[in-house]
UniProtKB/TrEMBL annotation:
Keywords: Glycosyltransferase, Transferase. SUPFAM superfamilies: UDP-Glycosyltransferase/glycogen phosphorylase. InterPro entries: Glyco_trans_1, Glyco_trans_4-like_N. PANTHER family: GLYCOSYLTRANSFERASE. This is Glycosyltransferase EpsF. Its EC number is 2.4.-.-. One of its GO terms (molecular function) is glycosyltransferase activity. Residues 183-349 form the Glycosyl transferase family domain. Residues 20-173 form the Glycosyltransferase subfamily 4-like N-terminal domain. Signal peptide: none annotated.
């Protein structure tokens, strides 16, 4: 695995922060599941470590406040120092933006053997950006989370096919199971009647998640289902504007903003239906978690969502931005408990069969170890790519669609 085959590889994941969100939750699950005799994970947060970072800091090294402002070029020096001090063998940037640029550039400057970028969205509408594309040559691989997403990275971002690897998102299906006791506790805590039909979203309050559409659909649904309640779990700078919008639509009494929460299985247990109204996604982990908790999903048909939300079977896919389409599906499920139960069963079975956390963890471990071996043995790039292509399991280069 490494020079002596006696120590784990030190792997630093570089991310902006660790609030409650899909990519952040995925990273928590991944770092917890690694075989620590093979991979020693660490996390470097450019900004504050956030609620999930606080939780994880009790288990692994978490570093924060590495950047002071957007144009703080001294972040490169801080990251190089951090990588060298911790003898980092591999850097994995998580998401696009500043962390993707500074993380890779600093890793190269620090002489880190393996440099990877894990991407969890399509970066709509501009992609990862020109500066990040400029660092393609120093990057050993780009990790996609679904086949459609991998094709996007090749066709839109123009990353070389031989550098794009697909590792499907995975979740802990034993942890994400519906719980009657959690349902009751959370409903009492939030103030939702026991039998009130309830729909919710778990997503950071970022523009691409389109919470404005969520609130518009809630307003429409309440006209047909006046006892319904709507839950928004997640936080972000847009929260005051969204709360004001709920007031303007006169639905504030039925809309509950939870902020950042760590007990996502409990929140999902409280719901009857899960929704996602995003402008763009890759393969959101929140959908997998909801399906695992036997909750049908209504989501906009973007990115690779269709690979987990099977239209008419585990939920419904809707036209992005179409409030009429989305709200009609909400109303259908909020008023039909039998349909919810049927779709919920199929959804959990689909996730158990196709979205294992162990498969995802094995994929990351094998990719990092294989790249490290190749780098340390100074193989030529061509033979390196050919050897990676022979792997079995969930990791493989993706050929672009013709």
């Amino acid at each position: 695995m490494n020079d002596s085959d006696t120590r784990p590889l030190n792997v630093m994941f570089v991310i902006t922060s660790m609030p409650v969100g899909g990519a952040e939750t995925l990273l928590v699950n991944l770092t917890r599941r690694f075989d620590k005799t093979r991979i020693k994970p660490m996390i470097g947060c450019l900004k504050e470590q956030g609620v999930l970072g606080d939780e994880l800091a009790n288990e692994i090294p978490v570093f924060e406040h590495l950047i002071n402002h957007k144009y703080d070029v001294a972040v490169a020096r801080r990251l190089r120092k951090l990588f060298r001090k911790n003898e980092v063998d591999a850097v994995v940037t998580v998401g696009a933006g500043d962390k993707m640029f500074w993380g890779r550039l600093s890793a190269r400057g620090a002489g880190v053997p393996v440099i990877l970028s894990a991407l969890h969205s399509t970066g709509w509408p501009d992609g990862v950006g020109r500066l990040n594309r400029m660092l393609t040559s120093i990057t050993d691989g780009f990790i996609a989370v679904a086949r459609h997403h991998a094709e996007f990275l090749v066709e839109f971002e123009k990353f070389p096919e031989g550098k794009v690897f697909m590792i499907p998102n995975g979740i802990d299906t034993l942890r994400f199971k519906a719980s009657d006791s959690s349902r009751q506790q959370w409903r009492q805590k939030v103030g939702i009647p026991e039998n009130a039909p309830t729909l919710g979203i778990v997503a950071a309050l970022r523009p691409e998640k389109n919470h404005e559409l969520f609130l518009e659909c809630a307003s429409r649904a309440l006209k047909q289902v006046p006892d319904a309640h709507f839950v928004i779990a997640g936080d972000g700078p847009g929260r005051p504007q969204l709360e004001s919008l709920a007031d303007e639509k006169s639905i504030a009494d039925n809309v509950h903003f939870l902020g950042s929460v760590s007990d996502i299985p409990g929140v999902l247990s409280m719901l009857d239906v899960f929704a996602l109204t995003s402008h763009n996604e890759a393969s959101p982990v929140s959908i997998l978690e909801a399906l695992s908790c036997n909750r049908p999903v209504v989501a906009t048909d973007v990115g690779s969502i269709k690979e987990s939300v099977l239209h008419g079977a585990t939920g419904y896919l809707c036209e992005p931005g179409n409030a009429e389409d989305v709200s009609s599906r909400w109303i259908e499920l909020l008023t039909d408990p039998d349909l919810r139960e049927q779709m919920g069963r199929k959804g959990r079975a689909h996730v158990v069969d196709n979205s294992s956390l162990d498969s995802m963890t094995d994929g990351y471990t094998e990719l990092i170890e294989s790249l490290y071996r190749q780098k340390k043995s100074t193989c030529r790039r061509s033979s390196f790519s050919n050897s990676i292509a022979t792997w079995a399991g969930s990791v493989f280069p993706v050929t672009s669609a013709n």
